[in-house]
Amino acid sequence: ATERTLSIIKPDATKRNITGKIIDKFESAGLRVVAQKRIHLSDAQAGDFYAVHKERPFYGDLVSFMTSGPVVVQVLEGEDAIAKNREVMGATNPSEAAAGTIRAEFAESIEANSVHGSDAPETAAEEIKFFFSDDEIVG
Ligand code: CMP
After folding, report:
1. What is the ipTM of this complex?
2. How far apart are CA 90 and CA 110, in angstroms?
């Protein structure tokens, strides 16, 4: 089925000016960018967005990293978009990511791993709402 998922191109990637290379990977896999904005997350926004990880030992570092520079947040649309996006991103830890995936090619570390993508339909809906109003999404 056609789905939408939330993608974030992280500060390590905006810093290296490789957002286009990453978007090319999504588009080449058949995903369409139907909403997009470049923003600098506040501490509160990054903390809320990753609230599910609040108890994890890496939470503080994750929030600092995600606020360390601009990010590009996007809604990607396509057939099985959630799974397809996860496939194109590759494993969270770049040392485990399959060849040709975004994280294998571009990620610097498990933290500076270039991209975030929603992991399930419910989280995709929540994460899209977190950043975009309905009229900002143009399919
Ligand atoms: P992301 O998909 O954005 O969701 C949470 C992020 O935490 C994850 O990608 C990683 O970049 C980051 N992270 C940092 N350390 C770890 C870790 N040890 N295990 C899982 N995620 C981590």
Report:
1. 0.96
2. 12
